[in-house]
Amino acid sequence: MNRRTLEERLFKILMVGSVCIVIGSLVVIFGLVVINGASSLSIEMITQTPRPSVPGDPPGGGILNAIVGSLLLALPATGFASLIGIGIALFLQNDFLHPRYSDIIRFMLDVLWGIPSIIYGIFCLMIMISIGMSSSILVGMIALTLLEIPIITRSMDEAIKMVPKGLKEGAYSLGSTKIETAFRVIRRQAFPGILAGILLGLGRGIGDAASILFTAGFSNRLPTSLFDSTATLPTMIYNLYSTPLGQSKAFAAAFILLMIVLIVSVLSRLLTRRFKKHIIK
Q: What are the Cα distances from residue 69, in Å, to 45, 115, 163, 169, 200?
């Protein structure tokens, strides 16, 4: 066996091993969550709010308030971040901005992407205190929007950069302006990647806990306005796990959160694959 054959086999083993580690980790995580939370999984988990329990008994009721709170925070935040992100992503292209400045802005977005989410929460907390507001859905929504902007923007930017240059040149030759080309040609061509970036941001927003720990607060009731505090699935999991006899219910809530994130991921793949059929290659 020569050196080249040995190297090839070695790298194949490493690649297969890496794939097995990733798949194995996913299976183990799902397995542990299901095994530990199966006894608490029921319809009332997603249809009822928490009920006061007698000392010594497991927490009663469900986590409907946390599911509603997560959606009320993540969906509008993703919408706002997407509107801001698509504008930034289009502006970063060479048609509007010099490549040198585009690279600087991309670097800043990468830095923002890497900032721990709790920093966003503390930043919004300081603003919240300075203007005399208390923990609420509105402040949590702002924190999640700031968190998702760099994620969604960079995903959109990479998708837009993959648009063939000939399409843009063809649009310009037909008399289209830069704005018309950006929104009628580039946006449509890059739509599958843009959609994937939006759903990626949504999955991150639903599953994040640190950025809303100080901003959205916690409540066992269903929120009725933007100025109410609310629980989310991550904060509910933490609260249940730190409660005596609440660990099983915490794993059940974790399973529901994992299923929501899994559905978002699968939906992203399916929609991206569907819309890819209509783009020009």
A: 14, 24, 37, 46, 19
- CA atoms within 13 Å, Cβ hemisphere of 248: 11
pLDDT digits (tens, 9 = 90+) for 116-155: 999 999 999 898 888 888 889 999 999 999 999 999 999 9
**Domain regions of the chain by residue span:** 3-40, 61-276
pLDDT reading at 91 higher than 70: yes
Q: How far apart are CA 89 and CA 161, in angstroms?
A: 9
Rounded Cα distance between 88 and 90, Å, is: 6
Amino acid present at 99? P
Q: CB within 8 A of 162, min separation 6: which ones?
A: 190, 193
Which tens digits make up the pLDDT trace of 214-226? 899 888 888 888 8
CA dihedral 179, 185, 190, 192 (to 10 degrees): 120
Fold of the CATH domain 61-276: MetI-like fold (1.10.3720)
How far apart (Å, rounded) are the C-alpha atoms in residues 111 and 100?
17
- pTM exceeds 0.70: yes
CB atoms within 10 A of CB 171: 18
Residue 31's pLDDT band, with cuts at 50, 70 and 90, is very high
Q: Band the pLDDT of 280: cuts 50, 70, 90.
A: low
CA distance 35 to 236: 19
